[in-house]
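Table 4 source record.
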Amino acid sequence: MEREQLAGLLGDQTEACGPASDALLGGGDFVVWDGSVPAGLLARTYAVRLERTRAKGIEKPLLACAGVKQRGR
């Protein structure tokens, strides 16, 4: 994948997308791996993210809607 394509995919979903796009277009390093990731690994990642955002008082409806269960619950 070319850096311009990746930068274009970032869009403006979050406040981090602009700086990430700027870093890519400015020559920042990036890696795109071929292949897939087991769903169990992604579920753990999103469960931790949901737990941490809720602990900070931030509700992330997309994480919650994804059916992510918090660890230990």
